[in-house]
Design a protein that fits this description.
Strand content: 15-25%
Strand order of the largest sheet: 4-2-3-5-8
CATH architecture: Alpha-Beta Complex
Distance between the termini: 30 Å
CATH class: Alpha Beta
CATH superfamily: YbaK/aminoacyl-tRNA synthetase-associated domain
Order of helices and strands: HEHEEHEHEHEEHE
Radius of gyration: 15 Å
CATH topology: YbaK protein
Length: 159
């Protein structure tokens, strides 16, 4: 992806940009990011036991995720976190920058994306624009449009 902002504007996905210091964890995000209206997220880049399936699972920032239970919901073998190399290979980003917007780099749709239904209740979703030094506020309808354009669609899951 050359420029996520160009992609969003070309596809008429509305967003509001807020720059801040680099954040690598939810805790740092709470301290260093501005208070914004929208669902704050935690994004998990996961793989199955064989490494043949990859997942991006987006949940509320404060939700605990049981990977064993999640693997059953995703009809997958044991889940583990994908390596930084896999993250770079599949989504073109570095650790700390994981967000739904990275799906714009998944041209072959090799990453299955799932959003916790609690996130989808919010009017807007907060996302890193492929780097962890900004946060975008994207209206839910526009995020749905983005997911359709990237070929991933909106797949909700109860976690």
């Amino acid at each position: 992806m050359k420029d996520i902002y160009e992609f969003l504007e070309t596809n008429q996905v509305e967003y509001e940009r807020h720059d801040h210091e680099a954040v690598f964890t939810v805790e740092e995000s709470k301290q260093l990011s501005p208070e914004l209206e929208g669902a704050s997220t935690k994004n998990l880049f996961l793989r199955d036991k064989k490494g043949s399936r990859h997942f991006l699972v987006t949940v509320p920032e404060d939700k605990q995720v049981d990977l064993k239970a999640l693997s059953g919901k995703l009809d997958s073998s044991r889940l583990s976190f994908g390596s930084p190399e896999r993250l770079k290979n599949h989504l073109g980003i570095e650790p700390g920058s994981v967000s739904l917007l990275a799906l714009a780099n998944d041209h072959d749709n090799k990453v299955e994306a799932f959003i916790d239904q609690d996130i989808w209740q919010a009017e807007a979703i907060l996302c890193h624009p492929l780097v962890n030094t900004s946060t975008l506020v994207i209206p839910r309808e526009d995020m749905g449009q983005f997911l359709e354009i990237t070929g991933h669609g909106v797949k909700l899951i109860e976690i």
